[in-house]
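ok so i was messing around last nite and threw this chain in just to see what happens. nothing serious, just curious
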Amino acid sequence: MAKLHWADVAAEKIVRERPDLQEYTCASGITPSGTVHIGNFREIISVELVVRALQDMGKKVRFIYSWDDYDVFRKVPLNMPEPERLEQFLRFPITSVPDTFGRDTSYARHHEVDVESVLPLVGIKPLFLYQAENYQKGQYADGMRIALINREKIKEILNRFRDDTHKITEEYWPISVFCSKCNKDTTSIESFDGEWGVQYSCTCGHTEYIDLRTTKIAKLGWRVDWPMRWEYEKVVFEPAGKDHHSQGG
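result:
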């Protein structure tokens, strides 16, 4: 009898395309920038259903859930306490923003805990990955280097899927830097030495040379970070939201 559920169809397609894998890695994740809502759960349950379908086929499966907690704190949500205090941390990495609820070690961790504590109640138990931690321990240094070496190719690929209004016309750098002096991402890449060295400057006046192998303040932009992690974690399935399918996504 033919499988009719979309998760079974997806699982069969994955195995058909990658029949020899010892383990199948499925992924999801979000930026903990505010209260995690039912729309975020949609991505979680979508992956969980494919994971279960693969397991029903007798496959070993790993479900990884990435907290993109090294993203920028762009705006203060309306439902957060002490908004004036939070405004002082705009443009900081989310892990550097305090938890104004007073419960957890950071703003990011507060929202992560809210999700991690309830998912087991519905039988979902992914392996949680924390991208601030991974970047800061140098896990993605080689990925950043490869992206910088191939930045013109990446720019060409991105522009291939953009209309003329959204094409990248200026010099393109696939990484961003949080200034080591002011902690904000109000920085510009000045140069790359072709190996591991990057020079940046910040609007606060600070300028610095960093080594990708040892720095704790550089990261890839999400359009490059996402496929870099697919390769690093050997991901075979991850759903996408409307932002990824929109112009420039």
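not much to say yet. The radius of gyration is 20 Å.
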